[in-house]
Each structure stands twice: as structure tokens, then as C-alpha cells.
Amino acid sequence: xxxxxxxxVIIGAGTAIGQEAARRAKGEGAQLILTDSHTGPLxxxxxxxxxxxxxxxxxSDVEQLAEFLDRxxxxxxxxxxxxxxxxxxxxxxxxxxATACYARREMCGGGxxxxxxxxxxxxxxxHLAAEAxxxxxxxITGARADDVAALAVRVMTDIxxxxxxxxxxxxxxxxxxxxxxx
Length: 182
Hints:
Elements: E1 7-11, H1 16-27, E2 31-36, H2 39-49, E3 53-56, H3 62-70, E4 78-82, H4 89-106, E5 112-116, H5 125-132, E6 136-141, H6 145-157, E7 165-167
């Protein structure tokens, strides 16, 4: 599976991981919709790589996130959500749930949600994957933006991976114990 001609939404595109994932996805031929809580990073990325659309809003606000998702034009194939700006533990739970609800309702099979976080709730990823099916849901943890972004783009195109927690800090490309994959 390729990202050529696929629509990829990157929520949190102003983070190092979001920026690198946008570059890589664009390099794979994706059409991009980028969000950030600040307009500066969005304008910079739009100018640097060319994107189809941008939106500035507080990604850690569940209501603003839901409004953004409801206004997305047309079909979305893949979504990357960098949860780095989620302020509270409850945000790291509610934001993925709200995004998975959108995916279940609007995205088609073969699409994916990729969450990136250092301390998100990995035990919920397998459950979110089951709830959002046939959309695939995975979590990547790790510190190096280029490694995380490369794995995120690879996971988007690998239709065999869902419900996985891929921890680059432990051992690149491996799942934590207890994570599901199908």
C-alpha cells in the first residue's frame, strides 16, 4: 500500500514529529491536511512542502477537535495524532477516543490512526483498534522525531498492523507486552 494520492491528516504538525511525518508523507505522495495550535508552524510547513489545507486550533480541546473532524472535507485515509500537547492524563484518554469515534464513522477500511505519545495509555490502544475497525489504530512511543515519523508512515501503509504499541525506546519496531496486533 502506498500513500500516493491518499489524504493524510496530521494533528499536531508543529511538533518535531508532526513536521517530520508531514515531510515523509508528502514525499510518499500524500495529500496533506495539517493542524497545530499555532499558525506559524502551519504556514512554514505549507510553504516548505505544499499542503492541501491547514487548520489552527487547540488540539487538546476535545470540542475543538470534534468540530475540526466534523468539518473535514471529503475522505480521509490516514491520521497521525501527536499527543505531545495533551495537557492532562484525561486528555490523553479522551482525545484518542474522540478521534477513534470519527474514524469509525467516517474513515474506510485500509485507513489508519497513528497516535504518537511518550506516556499515552497503551492499554487502551488494542481496545480503540477493536472499536474503530476496520480502521487500524496504533501507538508509537519514542524520542527521536525522524525515527517516529518514519515508523508512522510505514505503519500507515502496513495493513497487517493494528492495536500495536510500538516502542522505539525499548527496541525499534517491537511491540510492548500486552499489545495486540492482527
